[in-house]
Amino acid sequence: MAFVGVSAWSTVTGVRGTKCVEKRRRCTVSVVETPRVGSVRTEPLKEKNRGREPVLHTEGDKLQDEPWMIGSVLGAGMLAAAEAISLSTQVGSGFGLATALLGVAAGYLFADAGSGIYHWALDNYGTKDTPVFGYQIEAFQGHHASPWTITNRGLFNNISRPAIVGIPMFALMLAFQMPVAVEAFLCTTVTLSVLAQEFHKWSHMQRPSAPVKFLMAAGLLISTKVHGQHHRNPFEGNYCIVNGVCNDFLDRTKFFRKLEGLVYALTGNTPICWDLDPSLKVEALGESST
Ligand SMILES: [Zn+2]
Ligand SMILES: [Zn+2]
To answer: Where does the Lipid desaturase domain start and stop, copy by copy (predicted)?
Structure first.
């Protein structure tokens, strides 16, 4: 799944007692214990982000670009470019072009929905000690406590982890010939999944660039307004962060409450959002549930 590895933010459980200071962009960064997500105030996103120093909570997290980050992003970028060129030589015109465009549109939707499901899972289940996903779980949940920190990350730092996952996927696409529509779908899905964290970062910026603002207004990238609706206690909706087009449908149909009910029925695990707002459990399990 292309959403594995979506970046490093902060943590909900915190790194107890760690005191570390690093310098970047004239900011002092302290690793401190993070408050429980439920204690985060629900002020508007732009106010929440305004003029605050970055705060790191996840052990090993940092704001500087490291060589492995630059290498993974450049590697994924070069493979993505090679795949795009390869695809363009196969598309041709007429029917081929139409199916390729269909694949791109489907990939755009799928990447957005996938980003929401992945985000929902990491926001609500597991801890920093969860195998494989522990670092990302800390990062996603901690992002609620200090959402402004992501704006202090450069491109390489921000998307290096998903880029690592994208490298073998682009390589496989280059290695195997597929129908144009399928290849366009996969290429779009993986590319947008790798870039999702950057789109997410832009939605937190006080002053995104003019082209980004235009793409947000056109509905092609997740906007500050739409993503701001996620940053409200109990963080129970608006999980999609590519362009957010799937948010309304998923929330209106109570897709995530149904998933939470299914997880509860199968495993007995309850999501964090139920702790923050017990009425969500009632909503997920039915009015008669307690
Ligand atoms: Zn979240
Ligand atoms: Zn956010």
So the answer is: 108-274
